[in-house]
Amino acid sequence: MNSKGLKFTSLMLILVLTMILTVACEQAENEPAGTTETGSESEIAEIKTMTGDELVEQNSGKKKDEVLIIDVRSVEEYKAGHIQHAININVDEIEDRISEIEDYKEKPVILYCNSGKKSGTAAEILVNNGFKDVTNAEGVKEYEYDLVHYDDVRGATFEKLIEENSDIVLVDVRPADQANEEGMISGAINIPFDEIESNLDKLPKDKTIALYCNTGTKSAEVAKLLEDLGYKNIVNAIEGVKEYSFKLEK
User: Helix, strand or coil for residue 71?
Assistant: First the structure.
């Protein structure tokens, strides 16, 4: 091949490569955000919103067992008053604590703060980490919720707490026949939820009272009762023995 033919062939190759690169760049620019390498759209969930009335309804009866409610404010704000059954994970920590709630990636998670701003940020973090059903609820400064001051924690946190603190008074508030038949967490005493007020002598106010039941409902009622009676250090397991694999002993 003479020099002219070689130059022509080289020029044609350059033109073809230029066209291929141009088309590839245009496709990349036009491809929507959040797509995979194959061009299929990623599954980033849409963040839903919820009014205070809707959250109160969801947090009642057995409905509360269908969701995980997270207060994303500071520990101090949480202890000053939070929605019943809500655990506390500060917005600045939520990405580092994903493992604590990873089992809810396919289940409903409801977040709230004071105004909805921090919970909105937390909601974005969750959906970006693969959570499918995330709701940002009306904040405590925007809706008049009935707030409580004791600590609500999940089963694993509750279990760790009682393992690391031998001075805690651990109370099983299930009916006596059920506690006897199924067993209790090691170290627990059984005071059925409807006998609490007649057994206050077993619950010293200078110690932390840790409560559990089947699903966290009756123990939450007891926690609120003790709070109204002046108890300050109360921890309630929002997941009881029917929801978390506590080791029970007879």
Answer: strand
